[in-house]
Protein: Urease accessory protein UreD
Amino acid sequence: MTCDSASAANQLDLSFERIGRRTVLARRHVGYPFNVTAPLRSASLDAELIVQSVSGGIYGGESLGQRIDVGPGARVSVKMPSATVVHAARQGVAAWQSVALHVAAGAVLCYLPRPLILFPGGALRQVMDVTVAGDAAVVIRDGFMMHDPQSMPPAARRLDSRVTVRDEVGRLIAMDAARADDAVIDAACPGVTDAFRAFGAVWLVQRLQAPHCQVIKSAIARRFVCMGDCYVSTSALRGEGGVVVRVAAADGGALDAALDMAAGMVRDAVHQRPSADSLEPGWYDPHADLC
Structure:
């Protein structure tokens, strides 16, 4: 089975709309294993939703689907406060997860899951499809780590992941495909994985001119220059479509902390349209709330 041939029902299907100055959860379908809270109100965004799993992780052979629609002008943060364990595949059958994010004109979505934890024998195929209107903004946090509990025997694991970002008429902004398994990670190839065992990325999808991207890249580089437990790089997306911050870390704790920090920094850039004068040197407040 390939990423393109698999399909999943949407156990999590949410639609947000802006009514007056408020963002409301206009429609929702929530099935096992997901559970959601009522939207919270925050100073930075109009609606904040907490999504949790009640199943204890992702199991071999499961098919999971998420779909989130954010209507014109709505402002939403979707947080998943707990990392998700990918358990050993049943009879060698990989789990499948699809995520579809649709963000309309003038809207803002922060989609912030915690990293996946790949247990021995775990296998997952994950596809994320993002559609963003020209004047909308999306912040996405994504990552995974290898973990070997002492009580579990070693077993091969594998993650196939693809992120596709398009504009509202279907033009491709970015596509990122990755495959990770024990052989690749354990090889510790210089310039590929080195000794790192946890990897992730923070995406900012928003129209940004080249000087704005450069300011963000410089700020990220300065912030992480002295952190020895992770390596961070920032790249501009094609067509002035935003930036992606990639993180390689020694372990899950270092990865989670780095992704939190990077997500906070790019979130701060969503509305500022950063310039050298506005963002340097103190544009990022490490104590500010995330999205």
